[in-house]
């Protein structure tokens, strides 16, 4: 006998409750907003089933769907003397939601898996969401879609970029429709959007990390995250501090990568320093995230000085070196590559990534304030740092953990590759070692390029630079040239539509500055040189 449909099943439900498989009382609500949506302060949109979407032959326009307008939109219209947003806007939004399925969440099992992927593999670099934000039936649909986007980026599936693009479009649609009324939830979603771009970063577009990061920074400033008083007594104070410092780190790295002017002036803010206590769990990544901030600050300062074409003295360069020496000296034992007995610590990706930033900063200190020179010799300190980076990336690669690296590693890998590309030695063994290290970095980029547009651009650029250097060497051997071409002639600007040359400036160095055959003491600051590479320092 066929089972009868339960008599108490609701005939009218909203999109959010249907997606979460929870009971909805929309049909009993005269204000067209169910209790669940009202409790979570979300827009309540009536769901239309397949039958409800069918139109009679004579129907031309869309069917009117009652819903609860966004409070923020309503408030804006009330300021103009209009009690509610025009009804046609509500109908248009509902039509867009139905057409895009932006509020439709993945199946529960996949949703749970993607949330786990975020907290297990993405949170360490992008700690902007707390576990309770995406728990329970009233979790924000917008934030869930954004977390799904982040989780999809670290999956091994080669179809992952397709899923990532779908989630990206859903999050973008919900943001444009003012679907979520909680501004902090919107801010968290924007932070997550800033971590991915499907197109190369030299494409001028309204999508992409630079645009979303800028929007997130401006929203954060509206909220007041640049003022210490905002955090006092706030229930999400720790999470908001993590968001602020995530935005600061991200913009500094993008400024270094693309040579664009930043908008967040951290020196003008009075936000409390981030500590491990601001993280929900006492994990290694809590320490590595807080410890990387000073290194990224140095990278950002170098980028700003380069963009502004400042004349940098040797004392200023040594100041950066001294700060890096102090940083490595004060590093806690639990996040060192080597312990106090000079024994290699067990592999930990978070610790490895922390030191990647450190060695990249070393290379960048050799670029600040330099001008193009005739001689094409990377400073010895840059070559050593690049070799260290190659070995760290090798450990990550062979453990198949490159899938967990965020997109900024495209830039970090390029910085590591350039000294190795231009390094030349009379020793065949040294040449072979540098070539092997360069190929390892290329392998890492190759494994990431299918999901990050910027990494595809970096991969192409590295291959092009290799060919240029090879052609240049042949020309010198044939006597067709007597000097290396200048930095500008190498067209580094092509990496990002004309402004990325500021991020790299030059790896030229004359022999009387940092000779390849000089000892550390000959360089004029032997103690600093030794310290900066002494990872086992006590």
From TrEMBL:
Recorded superkingdom: Eukaryota
PROSITE patterns xrefs: ZN2_CY6_FUNGAL_1 (PS00463), ZN2_CY6_FUNGAL_2 (PS50048)
UniProt-listed Pfam families: Fungal_trans, Zn_clus
SUPFAM superfamilies with a match to the protein in the record: Zn2/Cys6 DNA-binding domain
Gene Ontology BP annotations: DNA-templated transcription
InterPro entries assigned: Amide_Lactam_Regulators, XnlR_reg_dom, Zn2-C6_fun-type_DNA-bd_sf, Zn2Cys6_DnaBD
Residues of the Zn(2)-C6 fungal-type domain: 13-46
SMART domains the record matches: Fungal_trans
Protein name: Zn(2)-C6 fungal-type domain-containing protein
GO molecular function: DNA binding; DNA-binding transcription factor activity, RNA polymerase II-specific; zinc ion binding
